[in-house]
Design a protein that fits this description.
With 357 residues, this protein is an alpha+beta fold. The chain is 39% helix and 16% strand. Strands 1, 2, 3, 4, 5, 6, 7, 8, 9 and 10 form a ten-stranded antiparallel beta sheet that branches. The chain is elongated, with a radius of gyration of 23 Å.
């Protein structure tokens, strides 16, 4: 799923391809377990959704209302390509996290949902109107009749012209499960996920970060090379032992072309440092994060991300900030061994204005 963000996305695509001064001493040790010297004094709290029934009910209703506005907007604009920015604005949600929240609330991916609406509209027009196939294709947001025909056959296993003649769809891929569990997800009940992935809230102060931006990041070797370079650089600067090594992405894997998808390998340090060639520096603002600690393989990481978005977030009193989620390496020395992960998954969150009053 890491509308964003995550190793599971990189793994999945790699598999398919082959088949400052303002920063306090260090980040808190019971969050950043790899830094034994961590001394930060910021606030964190354990969040129990079950103990907040009114907040949970309010949050569910709030997210449902937002996604319903998006659905209504999509239904009224099926004749054109609607951009992600538009839909996020309609929902008053961050573009970074819109896809995950839409899927969590609607039970379908945005792409599947939109295609289904278009094909259902097309099927009605084929059956009940005299419009040409080309006109129907354009009216339903397809760029051409050929594109429409391929999509219709893929969804209903029959051509538009055959359907117009018979009015019957004997087999429909669209009627099957539209939001299958992620290829890397584990089969776990809601209770098992809640027990395995407790969520806590953490306020992280502003910090200075060195980063390497990896383009075409679905190529796993490119990301691993960047991690190795970052580790070697941090050791040469004598900031590795007390630094925080993490990854993040500013792109959405659902909409960004694979060759343009960017993953940033980062290291935050309270000690001064000088970036080497190929690296850049940024100042990350203070922010609150919803955090899960996960230890295990890529399947467990993917399941934890899925739980954080699909179960915890939509039932909480929070919404995502317009900022990237983070994956923090707790075992920095083993950060290039992707057979097993020790991570903190960090989703930036805030209280919605409606919930603050």
């Amino acid at each position: 799923m890491l509308q964003a963000i995550s190793f599971s996305i990189i793994f999945l695509n790699a598999k398919r391809a082959s088949s400052s001064d303002t920063l306090d001493d260090e980040w808190q040790p019971d969050f950043w377990m790899s830094t034994a010297q961590g001394q930060l004094g910021y606030i964190y709290e354990t969040m129990s959704v079950e103990s907040m029934p009114s907040a949970k009910s309010h949050a569910n209703s709030e997210y449902s209302q937002r996604i319903n506005r998006v659905i209504d907007y999509l239904r009224g604009n099926l004749d054109r390509q609607v951009k992600l920015k538009e839909l996020a604005k309609v929902a008053c949600l961050s573009e970074f996290h819109f896809h995950r929240i839409f899927g969590a609330v609607s039970g379908e991916t945005l792409n599947n949902f939109t295609n289904r609406l278009r094909l259902e509209k097309a099927a009605r027009l084929l059956r009940y109107s005299s419009q040409s196939v080309t006109d129907i294709a354009l009216d339903c947001g397809f760029s051409s009749s050929a594109t429409f025909s391929r999509a219709f056959r893929s969804g209903y296993e029959t051509s538009p012209s055959q359907f117009r003649k018979s009015g019957e769809i004997k087999k429909s891929k669209i009627c099957k499960e539209l939001f299958p569990q992620d290829e890397y997800g584990l089969l776990m009940s809601a209770e098992e996920k809640r027990a395995a992935f407790p969520v806590r809230l953490l306020d992280i102060p502003e910090r200075q970060v060195a980063y390497i931006r990896v383009t075409n990041a679905f190529d796993m070797d490119r990301v691993l090379a960047a991690v190795k370079t970052m580790i070697e650089w941090a050791k040469s600067q004598d900031i590795f032992s007390r630094g925080i090594l993490f990854g993040m992405t500013v792109d959405d894997p659902h909409v960004t072309p694979q060759h343009l998808y960017r993953y940033e390998v980062c290291l935050a340090s309270s000690l001064p440092f000088k970036c080497s060639e190929g690296m850049s520096k940024l100042k990350m603002p203070a922010m609150r994060y919803a955090v899960i600690t996960v230890s295990g393989d890529i399947h467990k990481v993917a399941t934890a991300w899925d739980y954080l978005y699909r179960d915890w977030l939509v039932n909480s009193a929070y919404e995502p900030e317009h900022a990237p989620a983070l994956e923090v390496f707790l075992d920095k020395e083993s950060a290039t061994d992707w057979s097993h992960f020790e991570l903190e998954l960090c989703l930036p969150v805030r209280k919605p204005a409606e919930m603050q009053s």
